[in-house]
Amino acid sequence: MIETVDAFHRGRFHVVQPKGVGHRSGVDAMLLASLVNANGPVSVADFGAGAGAAGLAVASRLFQASVLLVERSSVMADCARKTLSLPENVALAPRVTVLEADVTSRGKARLAAGLADDVHDHVIMNPPFNDPADRTTPDVLKAEAHAMADGLFEGWIRTAGAVLKPGGQLSLIARPQSIAEIIAACGRRFGGLEITVVHPRPAADATRLLVTAVKGSRARLLFRPPLFLHGGDGHAFTPEADALNNGRSAIIRRGSPRR
């Protein structure tokens, strides 16, 4: 398998990614990481971490964050381990750990896999959110990373609710058509949902949702101002999107968790 070493946050960290197969991280991972905001030591679990881009983006911006990269695919988990061994990541690697596990495991199987109850301040996730009928691919690794299975959000969010501390924050990125399933999966586990709708350009329909929620909260759902990735012309990021993509700012909740 051919691999590339790709720079993020303008070279502050690098990620080993497969070329031509599997999922390659980009703007989605950086936007997901921007949802985590904390002062002081904080524990973050990155579900479906792939090669570790989103989790390392959190560690790159928050100098006291400890990050657990949780990935089911042995191929992608191996990429994450190679990522941590890069000399460019020597400053981040001591605060980042790779756990090869299925986040949909339940009960004793989940605990045995290393996903313990009530231990993390944040869980971030970029679940496979393409409908299986949207696109087919002979690349099994890519299909696993991109194609949604029935009940996917329920399974991932259930586990997030188990491993988060009371008052901990769930953050995820998804397609707009998944909003009903996300809200249903949060159920009584999470409240205070804050949703940012992401548009490629001001005149274009939304392509992503950024969602945060707090374990045990009873606060009401809030739609935040939209995020536009690009202006009306050209391919340059807007100043806001560029700052988020390069780890210079974060999306701070209106009703922030205690941490």
CATH superfamily: Vaccinia Virus protein VP39
Overall geometric form? globular
Average pLDDT reading: 92
What's the helical proportion of residues? 25-40%
Radius of gyration: 17 Å
Biggest sheet features: 9 strands, mixed
Number of domains: 1
CATH architecture: 3-Layer(aba) Sandwich
- The number of helices is 8
The CATH topology is given as: Rossmann fold
Order of helices and strands: EEHEHEHEHEHHEHEEEEH
Percent strand equals 25-35%
Query: Could you give the count of β-strands?
Result: 11
Q: What is the SS-derived class?
A: alpha/beta
Query: CATH class, please?
Result: Alpha Beta
Amino-to-carboxy terminus distance:
41 Å
Uncertain segments are none
Describe the protein's architecture and organization.
With 259 residues, the protein is an alpha/beta fold. It is 27% helix and 27% strand. The chain is built from eight helices and eleven strands. Strands 3, 4, 5, 6, 7, 8, 9, 10 and 11 form a nine-stranded mixed sheet that branches. A two-stranded antiparallel ribbon has the order 1-2. The longest helix has 12 residues. The protein is globular, with a radius of gyration of 17 Å. The mean pLDDT is 92. Pfam families: MTS. This is Methyltransferase small domain-containing protein. Keywords: Methyltransferase, S-adenosyl-L-methionine, Transferase. GO terms for molecular function: methyltransferase activity.
